[in-house]
Amino acid sequence: MAIERTYAMVKPDGVKRNLVGEIISRIEKKGLKIVAMKLMQITPEIAENHYGEHKGKPFYNGLVSFITSGPVVAMVLEGEGAVAAWRTMMGETHPADSTMGSIRGDLATTLDENVVHGSDAPATAEREIGIFFPELA
Question: Out of 50, 54, 94, 117, which one is annotated catalytic?
């Protein structure tokens, strides 16, 4: 498997609930390398760019509102099969469908507040890294 990079984010609910350390610890224990990380407030413009493919869908405004509601921790992770590794660590989008041991299975409370985000494919990772870490694009 190839070394690749992926975009990872601890969403506002994860930051608010003081889960950042737990999540970073899991990333490090998995053997993924954090090559960039920052605490930031996502602007509406960045949120609209990030969630652009969902514009016009019924849940779009809620996504933008939630992701801009508080600080997030944005990260670039690197490692063998990083995209798939991070997706597996996160668990399913809906916490109720996530297995125990996954971040969402253990820590998320609702579909709308599911603690973390991760790129779903290498091309998405490249686009999202470019949005949040343009210096790495």
Answer: 117
